[in-house]
Write a structure and sequence with these properties.
The protein is mostly helical and 351 residues long. The chain has one domain. The protein has helices spanning 2-32, 35-40, 47-57, 67-76, 81-93, 96-106, 108-132, 166-202, 207-210, 216-226, 236-245, 250-262, 265-275, 277-303, 307-315, 322-350. The longest helix has 37 residues, at 166-202. It is globular.
Length: 351
């Protein structure tokens, strides 16, 4: 049991500093990308709007649940189907917070590769749907359907455009980062860290390597696991790290990092209801295919040196620096109230 606790705690202290810093940037990013700004650039039914949608979506700190209301808002504002799916694909895969956390736990290659892959996947999905499913073929049932625009996230929408003073803006950014957005991901984040600890403790070293987890079979397994599962871009990181340490290839881990955050059963159902089954089929197909292609490319990149280098980088964070101590402490100070609010809301709803 001590070893299990150590595995969980080690994952937490490795991740916490980068989460605190990433959330800081996410808060200010939230203020910059207002709904009106995003909607203004995504209305044209052309390739440029698709590219803009992916470019705007990649840094935004929205989960796969939180991106839905914003996506439906964009459709109401007459965003093209291509721009809509581009935004829907690229946004939940990554964000400024998860990029920083990815760098901290998985290194610069993964940190650079994730947003680039999300950007490319979003663009391809958008162009594909513009050519195969014109605007009039995409169902729009969101005008008077409050169910369609609802989810469990408190911060699920991009902030409305306002003009407060600098101090109010700073407060809004920090409040979004360390209260609203953290409240949305805290439960899934803790669960992800615990799952990572259990994988590290219970699964033997090189387990997946023995059973083909380092190849295409491992990627297919990650699709099967990731499609219905709800994990945000940040909480998927410790799980992917633990899987790699047990023999999953970097490419297969990448597939999980894409499919897990980008899809879940609730999101798929909601998209089917509001935009139609054809839209869902294209969405899932593009995400899965490009996740696998990206996985093969990432495996090739790591093969240019040596795959053990990435596992060494992940597993050996020896010693605890002042940086880790200070920022882990700061993150813990904002995480504890977030968990309290989460539990309070759960019990209040049950009551």
């Amino acid at each position: 049991m001590d070893s299990l606790w150590n595995a969980i705690f080690t994952t937490y202290i490795q991740m916490a500093p980068y989460l605190f810093i990433g959330l800081f940037f996410a808060g200010f990013m939230h203020l910059v990308f207002t709904r009106e700004l995003v909607a203004k650039h995504l209305g044209s039914n052309n390739t440029l709007s698709v590219i803009k949608a992916a470019l705007l979506g990649v840094p935004l700190p929205l989960c796969s649940c939180g991106v839905i209301p914003t996506t439906l808002y964009l459709r109401k504002q007459k965003a093209s189907p291509g721009a809509t799916i581009s935004f829907l694909i690229s946004t939940p895969q990554t964000g400024i917070d998860s990029v920083v956390a990815t760098y901290g736990l998985m290194g610069p290659v993964f940190a650079i590769f994730r947003p680039i892959a999300a950007f490319v996947t979003g663009i391809f999905g958008g162009i594909f749907i513009n050519h195969t499913a014109p605007d009039e073929q995409i169902e729009q049932q969101t005008e008077d359907d409050p169910e369609a625009t609802s989810c469990d996230c408190e911060s699920c929408q991009i902030t409305p455009e306002t003009k407060p003073n600098i101090w109010k803006k700073t407060y809004n950014a920090l409040n979004y980062a360390y209260v609203e957005f953290l409240d949305d991901i805290a439960g899934h984040l803790i669960l992800g860290i615990i799952i990572a600890g259990f994988i590290a403790f219970f699964i033997p070293d090189n387990f997946f390597l023995k059973y083909g987890g380092d190849g295409f079979l491992g990627m297919l397994l990650m699709i099967v696991v990731g499609l219905p599962m709800y994990v945000c871009a940040t909480s998927s990181i410790p799980i992917a790290v633990s899987l790699m340490l047990k023999g999953i290839s970097p490419g297969a881990a990448f597939v999980f990092l894409v499919v897990g955050p980008a899809t879940n059963a609730a999101t798929i159902t909601l998209i089917a209801k509001t935009m139609g089954k054809k839209f869902v089929a294209i969405y899932l197909g593009v995400v899965s295919v490009f996740a696998v292609l990206g996985g093969f490319l990432l495996n090739y990149i790591f093969s240019l040196e040596a795959i053990p280098a990435i596992t060494k980088q992940i597993s050996l964070h020896e010693g605890v620096s002042w940086f880790t101590i200070v920022f882990t402490g700061l993150f813990t100070l904002v995480l504890i109230p977030s968990i309290y609010r989460l539990l309070k809301n759960k019990f209040t709803k049950k009551g």
